[in-house]
Design goal:
Strand content: under 5%
CATH superfamily of the largest domain: Hypothetical protein af1432
Order of helices and strands: HHHHHHHH
CATH architecture of the largest domain: Orthogonal Bundle
Radius of gyration: 17 Å
Number of helices: 8
CATH class of the largest domain: Mainly Alpha
Helix content: over 70%
Distance between the termini: 51 Å
Length: 192
């Protein structure tokens, strides 16, 4: 039903953030499919939220000092509002999509399954070897900052997962991160 909108979101995500944002969304979608395999959820609404969830962090919309989730909500509400009538998107569907975006870093068991899936899948993409590489690529000249960010995620994200299956995957990925970061420390002799 919303195939054209999803195609537009994919294209615009690539345009606004290049492969960084596009690849992140592809990986998050893969995690959603894995975590949601035995769950009932609205795939289309979740996919719309998936492609919009980080737009506030992309250079096109980024406002220094403003939380990207807040900005993503603003941008998503405008995008969805402009297309609601043409695409047959109801106000309750828009509200549901915006909920997913709003809580993708702070959700809980009281949120919809779509919001929980997006949040847990997004956090999984920041763990494991991918998570370490993301942090170091964002801070190439600040290895201490990248190291500390990755270490903090490895220690905190598993307990922030809502779904039991996500928690198990997060614990595995956290252990991978900790092994890699320990080897990094040893090779650098803690000089970085």
């Amino acid at each position: 039903m919303f195939e054209a909108m999803i195609d537009d979101l994919k294209r615009k995500t690539k345009e606004y953030c290049g492969t960084w944002g596009y690849a992140h969304c592809q990986r998050v979608k893969r995690h959603i499919l894995e975590l949601g395999a035995s769950k009932q959820y609205n795939e289309e609404l979740l996919e719309i939220a998936l492609w919009l969830h980080d737009w506030g962090a992309y250079p096109t919309f980024l406002e220094q000092g403003r939380d990207h989730v807040e900005k993503s909500l603003e941008v998503a509400a405008a995008y969805l509002g402009e297309r609601a009538l043409n695409q047959g998107l109801s106000q309750s569907q828009i509200k549901h999509i915006l909920e997913c975006i709003e809580v993708h870093h702070s959700g809980s068991e009281v949120n919809s399954i779509e919001a929980i899936l997006l949040g847990d899948a997004d956090r999984l993409d920041m763990l494991g070897i991918v998570g370490v590489m993301r942090d170091f690529s964002r801070n190439p000249k600040e290895m201490r900052t990248a190291y500390e960010t990755a270490m903090n995620r490895a220690k905190t994200y598993p307990s922030e997962m809502i779904l039991k299956s996500a928690r198990g995957l997060a614990e595995q990925r956290s252990a991978e991160m900790l092994r890699l970061l320990k080897a990094f420390e040893e090779q650098c002799e803690n000089i970085f």
